[in-house]
Amino acid sequence: MTRRKSLFTLLSVLSAVALPMLAGCPSSTSTDGGNPAGTTGGTTGSASAPTSGKKLTIAWAEWDPAKQMETLVKDFTTETGIAVEVQQIPWSDFETKINTAWSAQDSAYDLIIGDSQWLGKAATAGHYVDLAEWAKTNIPIADIAPAALKNYGEYPAGSGTLYAVPCMSDGIAFAYRKDLFEDEKNKTDFKAKYNRDLAPPKTWAEFKDIAEFFTKADGSLYGAALFFSKEYDGATMGFDQVLWAYGGDLSKDGKAQGVINSPEAVQALEFYSSLKKFCPPGSETYYYNETNRDFMAGKVAMAENWVAFFPDLVSDKNKFKDQTGFFVVPEGPKGRFVSLGGQGISLSSYSKNQEEAKQFIAWFSKEETQKKWASMGGLTANTKVAATDEFKNARPYNAVFGETVTYLKDFYNNPRFTELLTPMQNNLNEVFAGSKQPKEALDAIATEHQKVLDEMAKQ
What we know:
By secondary structure, the chain is an alpha/beta fold.
């Protein structure tokens, strides 16, 4: 998940709404052993009736957008005769599998729809092809939001390179139970206790009050389901947007010491960890799967998730789908910020089918393809498509995501990303599990981050 806070025009806002997600991110079966191209144990989809004898393999995480891509690529095969296989890898194994392929300079993957935070490493290590010159005459650059191109494809910032074309962008938002919020008794009781109307929260302080209100002593209902997990980037993505909202930051001018463990950062972590008592027991393990699960089970009044995981909440899988609403991440004392996620599609430097892979990227980027992608649930970066009423009204959460994009901000996006994420995840999760105090955890993060930043400064 990644990107910096930017104010866009309405078209740009809606267009940059592609992920992820990081983030931020579901689960499938992994590819076989250490072989990224293994076909056993993996969920794959391949377009039928190829006539050219050529075949492309796309690596992506296992989630609904990848399944939608499986369907979409059949049109490409029909038009070109080039078969396309979408290999889906569980989010928990995704980065490991791709790193294994990179280390071996494996040609198994032609195209990688990788997490946005990997871009720095992939670009500097030569794993991705720079598409900048090719894109000028093969991609409708003018129709893609500049922010999306910058945030999902360019590294380093301002360099003019293009190591990915936007595929699926994402950001965090919240689902809530409209029936609970609109219940007359709840409205009366809430106003009597908090002296204001019960409504989706605009601030984190309001969020805490609402979470407290809906948490029942008998465990029949909890106020919220939030990201606290040590899995991948869960705890970090949940906390970062509160950190920024309280005026804290990860680093400044190459310094983590005194920044990530500043008084503002400590206050932010104390606040975020205080919300855990309004979440179901065991929520220190919660990430996207668990928050959706508890919401659909009727266990929580509000649930945090990446927008890309909201389709389940408006499907028949959710018995509360008609009572489900959505709202933007709340504002803090120093503003509103949202952790960014998402993926661009990149050409592997080790692909033996680079011309065909470029042909696919060009096809995927066309306006008519993006219209179909959006109709299937894809969050497009094409401004013409995203500006249409058809797109805005296609999903109950599209309008919320359109607003969300104006507040997106990035975690570190550099070649040492994993080394920065790991201590953040481990220490934050210890706070949420109750084994470490906020200041202690942030001091430990500052020490580890400073080591990495100092080493990078010497390179």
